[in-house]
């Protein structure tokens, strides 16, 4: 509906940064080129039955070959920031040893192209594509993988450290833990709670070691973690629901936030797991100091709230999107931003993902009418505006995603982009939401 685009009259502070986000495996394709090794997502997507429709990231949006045209589209939208990820197996095919120059060169070209167009690069070091060789050596259950990650990060910083102003370490450690090791519908496809929480610790450790690697180089870049945060609300007014919600919040949010920002894991979560858990046995003296190495910013990704019942289950309160786990509730973004600022102090925050999937199709005259995305983004941006007005030091907003891409277990069935990708031809078509977002950026307002 046209009223979704009616201005709300909410201006953002001068210098507020508008952007969009992607990740390597979801858009690049070219999985066998220029010395790239295999990742756990190559293995997983090629395992029959794992991905809807049997889809893989082999070609994806072919961004590895089409990045120059994609950069032009970003410029046309007026983006001030582009968040992308670096594929570890392009830099170290087997996850160790001397960096692969051709892999580094791709990201050097990408970063140079961003600067030429006046767009600030924001680089994520790890968006889930672990080199398969490291998985074969135990994956994130192995403490050694965190040390390997520090070496990889150091190689990337050496090549790109002067040209990337903002670094993010690990994308959504919680999603690796929950989807990869508890539910098993993401790589590596495990259902092992004991392993899962040890994996969480090693991901946090890897984060801290990468922060230290950047600090020891010196240089201009800022760095922080990228957490998907879920505001947790009790499903009813009972004391039991309140208690269950607190513990749920411990696993969803405080486990990650507390360790990085206070140097402790939450006591209620540690108690819940017990003293003999693999996590408890895997934490060594000094680990929390590494994890809590001071960061420059917090990257927040927001998609959905969670409503927790007295029995510790969850219920759905709001309309869901095409992603059945996503309830549309813009106030949740306000709640999580203000809560983080209240509980952990005024650390600069970037919203590095927010968006929804739509079932839009290519319409007549090459139009894509994704009015639902316009409404969703407008309402979430308005919630972010309210958080700023209430004192949250929010610097930027990145839409997930710049373009349609490989949505993990959902394959190409879910389209999350501002830009439609016609996969058979790889043509890009700006959706209605992309035109709308261009005007938001130009006006610095919704
Ligand atoms: C993020 N949840 O994953 C990822 O960073 C992206 O790669 C992905 O494409 C995007 O969101 C859309 O799914 C999430 O269950 C996975 O709340 C699960 C949740 C949130 C984000």
Written description of the protein model:
Helix 15 links the parallel strand 10 and strand 11. The chain has 446 residues and is of the alpha/beta class. The chain is 43% helix and 14% strand. Helix 8 runs antiparallel to helix 9 and helix 14 runs parallel beside helix 15. The site of 4-nitrophenyl beta-D-glucopyranoside (PNW) has 13 residues, from loops.
Sum up the structure in keywords:
single chain, 446 residues, alpha/beta, 13 strands, globular, binds 4-nitrophenyl beta-D-glucopyranoside
Helix content, binned percent: 40-55%
Low-confidence stretches: none
Described by the principal axes of the CA atoms, the overall outline is globular
Overall residue-averaged pLDDT value: 97
Strand order of the largest sheet: 1-2-3-4-5-7-10-11
- Helix-strand string: EHHHEHHEHHEHHEEHHHHEEEHEHEEEH
Radius of gyration: 21 Å
For the termini, the CA-CA separation is 16 Å
Number of helices: 16
In short:
The chain is an alpha/beta fold. The protein has 16 helices and 13 strands. It has helices at residues 24-27, 40-45, 63-77, 88-91, 101-116, 132-136, 143-160, 173-183, 193-217, 239-262, 267-273, 278-282, 287-291, 331-344, 371-389, 432-443; strands at 17-21, 81-85, 120-126, 166-171, 222-228, 232-234, 298-301, 306-308, 314-315, 349-353, 394-400, 419-422, 427-430.
Which secondary structure elements does this structure contain, and how are they paired or packed?
Elements (H helix, E strand, L loop, with lengths): L16 E5 L2 H4 L12 H6 L17 H15 L3 E5 L2 H4 L9 H16 L3 E7 L5 H5 L6 H18 L5 E6 L1 H11 L9 H25 L4 E7 L3 E3 L4 H24 L4 H7 L4 H5 L4 H5 L6 E4 L4 E3 L5 E2 L15 H14 L4 E5 L17 H19 L4 E7 L18 E4 L4 E4 L1 H12 L3
Parallel strand pairs: 1-2, 1-11, 2-3, 3-4, 4-5, 5-7, 6-8, 7-10, 10-11
Antiparallel strand pairs: 8-9, 12-13
Helix pairs in contact: 3-5, 7-9, 8-9, 14-15
Bound molecules: 4-nitrophenyl beta-D-glucopyranoside.
4-nitrophenyl beta-D-glucopyranoside (PNW) binds next to loops.
Family: Belongs to the glycosyl hydrolase 1 family.
Organism: Polymorphospora rubra
Protein name: Beta-glucosidase
């Amino acid at each position: 509906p046209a009223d979704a685009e009616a201005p709300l009259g909410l201006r953002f502070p001068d210098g507020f940064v508008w952007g969009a986000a992607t990740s390597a495996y979801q858009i690049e394709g070219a999985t066998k080129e220029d010395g790239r090794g295999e990742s756990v997502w190559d293995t997983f997507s090629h395992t029959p039955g794992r991905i809807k429709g049997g889809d893989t990231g082999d070609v994806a949006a072919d961004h590895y070959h089409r990045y120059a045209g994609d950069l032009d589209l970003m410029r046309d939208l007026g983006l001030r920031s582009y968040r992308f990820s670096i594929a570890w197996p392009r830099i170290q095919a087997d996850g160790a040893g001397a960096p692969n120059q051709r892999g580094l060169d791709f990201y050097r070209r990408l970063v140079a192209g961003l600067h030429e167009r006046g767009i600030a690069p924001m680089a994520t070091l790890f968006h889930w594509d672990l080199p398969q060789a490291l998985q074969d050596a135990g994956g994130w259950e192995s403490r050694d993988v965190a040390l390997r990650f520090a070496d990889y990060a150091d190689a990337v910083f050496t090549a790109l450290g002067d040209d990337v102003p903002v670094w993010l370490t690990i994308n959504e450690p919680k999603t690796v833990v929950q989807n990869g090791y508890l539910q098993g519908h993401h790589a590596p496809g495990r259902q092992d709670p004991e392993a899962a929480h040890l994996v969480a610790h090693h991901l946090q450790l890897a984060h801290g070691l990468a922060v230290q690697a950047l600090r020891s180089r010196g240089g201009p870049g800022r760095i922080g973690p990228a957490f998907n945060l879920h505001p947790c609300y009790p499903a009813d007014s009972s004391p039991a629901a309140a208690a269950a919600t607190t513990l749920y919040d411990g696993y969803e949010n405080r486990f990650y936030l507390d360790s990085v920002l206070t140097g402790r894991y939450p006591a209620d979560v540690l108690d819940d797991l017990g003293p003999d858990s693999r996590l408890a046995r895997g934490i060594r003296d000094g680990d929390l100091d590494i994890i809590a190495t001071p960061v420059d910013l917090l990257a927040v990704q927001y998609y959905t709230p969670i409503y927790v019942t007295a029995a510790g289950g969850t219920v759905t309160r709001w309309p869901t999107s095409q992603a059945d786990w996503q309830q549309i509730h813009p106030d949740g973004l306000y709640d999580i931003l203000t809560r983080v600022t209240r509980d952990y102090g005024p650390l600069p925050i970037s919203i590095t993902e927010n968006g929804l999937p739509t079932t839009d199709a290519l319409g007549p005259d090459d139009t894509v009418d994704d009015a639902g995305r316009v409404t969703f983004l407008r309402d979430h941006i308005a919630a972010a505006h309210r958080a700023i007005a209430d004192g949250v030091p929010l610097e930027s907003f990145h839409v997930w995603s710049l373009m349609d891409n490989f949505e993990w277990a959902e394959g190409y069935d879910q389209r999350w982009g501002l830009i439609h990708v016609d996969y058979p031809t790889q043509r890009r078509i700006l959706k209605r939401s992309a035109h709308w977002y261009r005007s938001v950026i130009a006006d610095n307002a919704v």
